[in-house]
Amino acid sequence: MPSISCSLQKRRPGSPRSEVRAIKAALLAALGIGTLAISSVAQAQAYQCRIPANVDAPQLRTEGRARNLPVTGYTLALSWSPEFCRFREDDRRHSRQCSGRQGRFGFTVHGLWPNSGRTWPQWCERTPVSTDVFKPNLCMSPDASLLARQWQKHGSCMTRRPATYFKVTRILYNGLRWPDFVRISREDNLTAGTIRTRFADANAGWFPEAVGVHLDRKGWLEELRLCYDRRFMPEACDERRYGAKDKQAAKIWRGL
To answer: Which residue pairs from 36-43 have beta carbons closer than 8 angstroms and sit at least 24 positions apart in sequence?
Structure first.
């Protein structure tokens, strides 16, 4: 996998369109895929997903103090939707993701988080987001409130424009290849290490140490956390992002 020749900088000069084009070109080169491949996997984890005609813009509010720090890498956090929705099928707050009326989801994006060594920048600035920015992302992250919070807490520390943050997130997400997690859930003696290996085997350039696996207290898969360096290349996760040890027993709820 070739390296990315540029990295996201919050105050990168240039027009919005030129910034997006430069980042997209660099990411496509690093991922080793083309535009046709991107479109073919755009909804690979969203089964029969429908974009609503109207989306209410959530209210943005800062929940902590601003922490402007240099970005040294990134984490793409992916929530396993069947587990998230396990007891939320009738929860109005999560009806889009969990009711089944607007689609069924596999892995959804919790967020793209910039890192700074052993900590992370957050709440860097308050920038309004229009509903047009949210709509293209609702098969990737089916909760507009979550999208708004991820932009304000994390994305505002990466770039000046919400659209750029979500564009980069989509490119990373759509560039992934997904092994059959329903089949994996049926493997005997399933462990966190097995999950890491299956994901890495399906994605050229990835290796198990770059895949964080987070389980709940009963051993059910909740989230994958993919670790990138500042050029968006896979890197070994630190202990905090790595999650469960390789030999820890794991279970995957299939939502059936």
So the answer is: 37/175, 38/171, 38/174, 38/175, 41/174, 41/175, 41/176, 41/177, 42/139, 42/170, 42/174, 43/139
Which alpha helices (H) appear in the chain, and where do they start and end? 16-31, 35-40, 81-84, 95-98, 131-134, 144-153, 162-174, 181-185, 192-202, 239-242
Distance from C-alpha of 65 to C-alpha of 236, rounded to nearest angstrom? 29
Retrieve residue 117's tokens.
């060594």
Selection from 65, 76, 225 nearest residue 158 by Cα: 76
pTM score of the predicted model:
0.81
Answer whether 227's CB lies under 8 Å from 210's CB. Answer: yes
Phi-psi region of 69 (alpha: psi -120 to 50; beta: other; left: phi over 0): beta
Write down the residue that tokens 């990315």 correspond to. 4
Token pair, residue 116, equals: 């700074």
Kindly state which CATH superfamily the domain 16-242 is placed in: Ribonuclease T2-like (3.90.730.10)
Q: Using one digit for the tens of pLDDT, what is the confidence trace for 149-184? A: 999 999 999 998 999 999 999 999 999 999 999 999
Q: For 38-66, how does the pLDDT look when each residue is reduced to its tens digit (9 = 90+)?
A: 333 434 466 667 777 777 767 767 677 88
Q: At what angle do helices 162-174 and 144-153 cross, to 10 degrees?
A: 110
